[in-house]
Amino acid sequence: MMMMNGEATEAELFLNCADMSVLERQRAQLNYHHLPGFFSNSSTINGGEIDDGFLASAGLDLPEIYGEVHGDARISVSPGNITNESGNSKKRKFGCVDTETKVFNEKKKMMMMDREVEVEEEEEKSKITEQSTKSIMKMKNKAKKEQNSCSNDSSKVTKDSQRTDYIHVRARRGQATDSHSIAERARREKISERMKFLQDLVPGCEKITGKAGMLDEIINYVQSLQRQVEFLSMKLATVSPRLDFNIDDIFAKEVVSAPMMNLPNSVMPPHMMVNSGYPHDMVNSGYVHFNPMQQVVTSSDPLACFNNGQSATMWDSDVQNLYSSLGV
Amino acid sequence: MQPTSSMKEEFLKKWQMGLQIYRPLIDNTSVSERRKAIKLSADVAMASLRKGTTCWSRALIQKTATEDNFLVRQMLSGIKAETLINKKLPKVMCHRKIVRRSKMILRRRQSRSAIEEVAAKARKLIKKKTQGLRNVVPGGEFMSNDVLLIQETLDYIVSLQTQVNVMRSIVDAAEAGSER
């Protein structure tokens, strides 16, 4: 019970940070229900049932952690935990769909993660044989102990376990099985998952693989966006001395619908463009769909950040075309 | 996730609302004051889209409240304004120098292998970068863990993109209008 409490707090820490990653157990060597780490509270649902449903056929196989979960489990959990605004929940759903397809690429994903993890994995690989046997032994021993102590808890996190308070973790072969390192791994995985989203969002980051490089790009991008805001507000202040942008006028202007491809050198006439990729929710008949790719040309400000802005919007249109094709 | 047109609409509406507040005062103001008005109302509009759910939006609102309390109160509906403005930001920054010094002392006692040193350097670098990111994102210093930080960054980037897109289109339209 003491063990449970200690692990409960760690699990709660996890829940309080955003998503839960429920782990898929590929399968086990023997019939253990319980593993070091976290216990799920879905015990009542599954009773003492052996998790055969999830186990592939017998044989020694590499138990694998951190498979991604079912979309439902995640979606059902997150609104319960956190009250999301539309922005956030959209993000999460997107994440669910995305990660579901990555279930079986888990290992590869882990391999492609940051340098930090690679270094650590190398360290661990070098001790694989001893550790693997050790970990197996540990798991077996713990399993027996836990079997005795908590017979009612099931370690299964299934589709039915919509309201798990604990995350059940199974350590990978050859890696430490204490709860701290498992917690750290879960946390690291979350971070890398979110970095992937950021990679999609920030233009021009597809090739950057390390955490540090990505963070650099993100910082630069955010700074450039902030600078753009400053610049645009300055421009607006100079353009309209009375701060009266006549919105109706703007809407009534003619709108050209042209698919916005990458046209870095073309001079577009300075009126609004419509991108057919945007969803058509019209507020009034004259409403214009804003387009990230605005070719601002007539201005004579030679500010550096302006150039950055322009290139950023070109990337934006690329990414945006990609997203529109996905129907986002 | 890209900025959707509904987000842009909302932002535009709120921003216009904010600018309305400035309009009666506008006659003899300088360019810089106008710029400030534009930017502040745009910031508050962007932050209010999130309705107080994200850390960065709260921090941004509090920041602009220090510059123009009146604007913020007007732009946000009454109760929310009070709570958001008066709410204390969650965590106090720790004294980094003290923490750093004590960490250095601890470190000196450890003996390290070559592999560990490399890993430690990589970790240090990443920590520096995350600190840089915290400086850029509003309210970053108050985000306790990295996961939250990156999540907030995601949301912040999307909102910034919305803001930039809307402002840019307004500028273009205003320019086009003034040309004619």
Count of DSSP strands of chain A: 2
- The CATH superfamily of one domain in chain A is known as Helix-loop-helix DNA-binding domain
CATH class bucket of one domain in chain A: Few Secondary Structures
Ranges of chain B where pLDDT stays below 50 over 5 or more residues in a row are none
Structural class of chain B: mainly alpha
Order of the strands making up the biggest sheet of chain A: 1-2
In N-to-C order, the SSE pattern of chain A is: HHHHHHHHHHEEH
Task: Explain what the structure shows.
Chain B: It holds the Pfam family IBH1_N. Chain B: This is IBH1-like N-terminal domain-containing protein. Chain B: InterPro entries: bHLH_AtIBH1-like (IPR044549), HLH_DNA-bd_sf (IPR036638), IBH1-like (IPR044660), IBH1_N (IPR059002). The complex is a heterodimer of chains A (328) and B (180). With 328 residues, chain A is mainly alpha-helical. Chain A has a domain at 179-253: Helix-loop-helix DNA-binding domain (MYOD Basic-Helix-Loop-Helix Domain, subunit B), CATH 4.10.280. Chain A has 11 helices and 2 strands. Chain A has helices at 2-16, 43-46, 71-81, 86-100, 106-111, 115-126, 128-149, 179-201, 211-239, 247-252, 304-326, and strands at residues 256-257, 273-274. Chain A has a two-stranded parallel ribbon with strand order 1-2. In chain A, α3 (71-81) runs antiparallel to α4 (86-100) and α9 packs across α11 (304-326). The two termini of chain A are 47 Å apart. The model of chain A is unreliable at 1-20, 34-161, 252-316 and 322-328 (pLDDT under 50). Chain B has 180 residues and is an all-alpha fold. Chain B has one domain (5-93, 129-179). Chain B has helices spanning 5-22, 31-48, 55-67, 69-75, 78-86, 96-109, 114-136, 146-179. The radius of gyration of chain B is 21 Å and the shape is elongated. The two termini of chain B are 37 Å apart. The model of chain B has no long low-confidence stretch (mean pLDDT 80). The chains are: A mainly alpha (328), B mainly alpha (180).
